[in-house]
Automatic annotation (TrEMBL):
Name of the protein described by the UniProt record: Amino acid transporter transmembrane domain-containing protein
Top-level lineage group: Eukaryota
Chain ranges passing through the membrane: 167-186, 206-223, 230-252, 272-290, 302-326, 346-369, 389-409, 415-435, 456-478
Organism: Manduca sexta (Tobacco hawkmoth)
Broad class of where this protein is predominantly found: membrane
Segments forming domain Amino acid transporter transmembrane: 73-474
Keyword presence, Membrane: yes
InterPro entries in the cross-refs: AA_transpt_TM (IPR013057)
Alphabetized UniProt keyword annotations: Membrane, Transmembrane, Transmembrane helix
Pfam family, one: Aa_trans
GO MF terms, alphabetically ordered: L-amino acid transmembrane transporter activity
Membrane topology of the entry: Multi-pass membrane protein
UniProt subcellular location: Membrane
Any Gene Ontology CC annotation: vacuolar membrane
Amino acid sequence: MRGKRFKMDDKIRLITNDRMAKSEKNNIDLNNFSSTAELTAHPGFQSSISIISKGKEDKPYNPFEHRMVEHPNTTIGSIVHLLKACLGSGILAMPAAFKNAGLVTGSIGTLLAGFICTHTVHILVKTSQEVCVDAKKPSMSFAETCEAAFTYGPKGVRKWGHFVKNVVDYSMVLAYISVLCVYVVFIGSSFKETLDAYMPDSELSIQTYCALTLVPLVLLCQIRNLKYLVPFSAIANVLIFVVFAITLYYVFVDLPPLKEREMVAEVTQWPLFLSTVVFAMEGIGVVMPVENEMAKPQQFLGCPGVLNISMVIVISLYGIVGFFGYVQFGDQVKGSVTLNLPQDELMAQSAKILMAFVIYLSYALQFYVPMEWITRMLKKRESDRYENVIQISIRIVIVTISVAVAAAFPNLELVISFVGAIFFSTLGLLIPAVVDTVYHWDKDLGKYNYVLWKNTMIGIISLVALVSGAYVSILGMVEEFGHQELEGSHSNVTSL
């Protein structure tokens, strides 16, 4: 019995020692994992840890593996969002753009402008994915990407990162709130022109029509996730194709011969074409939110990829509408080709109403851009108390501001085209080129520094679009102001 007891005691002692050894090993792992000084006291143990740690450090950080998106978008949903962001009221201005370029110049210019806009989006997203690896962050917004590109760029520009981020943030918010105002004016004007044709005795002003959009827009903008906006974008995309079909029907009826139109317009008019196309095509503010919320973000770039598929469709539609719209209406083409459609035909009027509904559905997607920045600001609060109430209130306030500004200035298009030309040529072309150059300055600018030369050309093009767009807008505002002054003095003389 004593022999068995000794054997039993030995087993208990061995089990106890083994457990103590394991416990001590675990304590070493927990307490000394980050301490190099204490790990050196255990040479054998340090060797195994250092090998494992080195292996982990050699594996590059993959931001896609660390993204935790609550409501991820599918690849198809992302294409739908990009199409809706780029296919707006701007496409209806393409015939007027072709008027300033000519058929040949306009066709080539549309392809080049589309390629440049696609490329700037590509380099922005690519840079964002690269700086996410450097910063070890799963995703970044447009402004965060710009800040990180400077922060992880050459030493001389690192201190400017936060300043650049603020500039991009505020520019983006102002640009898209301006777009929202234009959308309200477009909706109100479309309904007024259509209903006035069938109710000539109606005395409702355009301000009233703008005010009537308030409640529907407030309700639509309470949707907070891009995933839930996919059905609205899909409906809008279907309707906009219906509008295009109706518009093209009238465009192709009794189409005049091409020789009656200018092939190449005067060079002095080309900047007007460029600023119109860039303003119409750019959806730079929606790009990063769409890419960040994709279920498979690696499918955004590449061939075919979400970006390339979307932009091929966009460029094709812009070219077709612009080319044949100018062929049909010539120098008489208006800012929106729908305004050239017959006013006494039901199908033509329905196109105008459907386009107003498309813009209404697009409002929420454009609204997402400034709200994305505001939401980031709200996350800095120490408490989440009343967050839902604050979110609802802010959304109501922004919509109300856009409706109020549109109602107060129903001819807002000239002011917004001035702001839009400045912000979209800067945000869509200049900033991506600068960010790409800064980030790769001391890394790799390619053979013969082709990245630097390429981005310099993009910067020059953006400045031309900026100056020309601002110049035309200012001229238009001056002319309109003079016209209003003349009408006011004429009415005063009549009353006397």
